[in-house]
Design a protein that fits this description.
about 475 residues, two-stranded antiparallel ribbon
Length: about 475
Amino acid sequence: MSIRILLCFAFVIGFSVYAYRNWFVSLCAAIALMAVLEHPDMPKSIGDIQGLNPWNLLMLNVILAWMRNRRREGLVWDMPGYVVVLLVFYSLVILWGFVRLVLDHALLDEDETIMGYNSLAWSVSEYLVNCFKWVLPGILLFDACRTRQRMTIALAVVLSVYFLLALQTIKHMPLSSVAASGAELSRRANKVLSRSIGYHRVNLSMMLSGASWAVLTTLPLVRRRRNQLLVIGAAATISLGQALTGGRAGYVTWGVLGVLLCLLRWRWLFPYIPLTVVGICILLPGVRERMLQGFGNRSSSGVVTQTDEYEITSGRTIAWSYVIPMIWKSPLVGYGRQAMIRTGTYQKIMDDYQGGETFPHPHNAYLEMLLDNGLVGFILVIPFYLVVVFLSVRLLLDRADPLFAAVSGSCFALVVALLIAAMGSQTFYPREGSVGMWAAIGLMLRLSLERSRARSTGTSLFGETDRPSDAVLPEEATRYA
């Protein structure tokens, strides 16, 4: 057994025991562990028991400690009713899609191309249990973060996960990759990142695209110039890590997010946008070429001949052309989870293109939701994200407290990153890469509730008698407001 595995088990056992004394701290430890959860050295199971792994063991103890101690701590469940209803609808869609998968699991059992992950037991774990498991940290943070100190600590832990993922990306991807061709950057990232970090480069690109802006939104919380530079440096590090992923959907997401945040609150950053674009084109030619791949292909004489739709969308239009007609065949309720495999759509693409399209996913989270659950499921799921974005924007526009900008800005960046990148990949089924986003949602919902409560009762935020001495006053944060 390697030293890394021993340290991992020591970490998990230590915080599992400590959870019964302070479950919030152990919850933060479980969230931080997400930075290495998919690493090849991380044990995927204990004793070959499905679902028994270090992270699940730690979270189980956190949940048990939470259930045991919350009454003693005087915690009252106060999540707004409309949010609870939306979460219930979301859960019902996941549950119903899974039930339909189980009732028609035969074709999934026969498929031998999905790396062997097609047994019923694995499906129960992956398509049912895990979908709810990844949301739990966000729900627990909502219940835990009832003070400014806890809110700040939790936000720092969530953002540190993305920073650590970016550092791993920079460590394993040669910096020379951004100076290579776009095709070479994509090839290296595809070969290296999944093997060394565990997250696919496309997912990493989306995650880091929102995280870099999320870190920048915390600037109003920082008073000293040195610490401000550290925050900016952390955001730049995450952006560099994202550039090294070669994920074009993430590049687009990063740019759109920057424009949206500038429009909403930080308009003084607009003059820096063209400078940033020019800097990327000059200093990161691989990123520039990867971003423009397929636009204006040149002939041997250097003349622009055509725009290649296949190259621009990385072949996604192939999947879309098969998925959309299938959606129209059952537009209201869809076909259940993993419909692309179970309806034979994936196999048909493989047959028609002789294995050229090898990923059993519609390459569009919106189309996946429509294919699996129809218009009914789509209508039950998407409003949750719209409400989260609305609450985040409302909180982001409130300049009464710098904490509003940090928490709501982080939530907005991470959620909108998913909504934008979902047009070219991703999924609305919760998975390991979305834990940070769900945690940010939990923090934003808590802060939004505390803000409404403070306004209705005429008291200060979190019922504080005095603002903590180390907090940044609004007038001190005007530079980044």
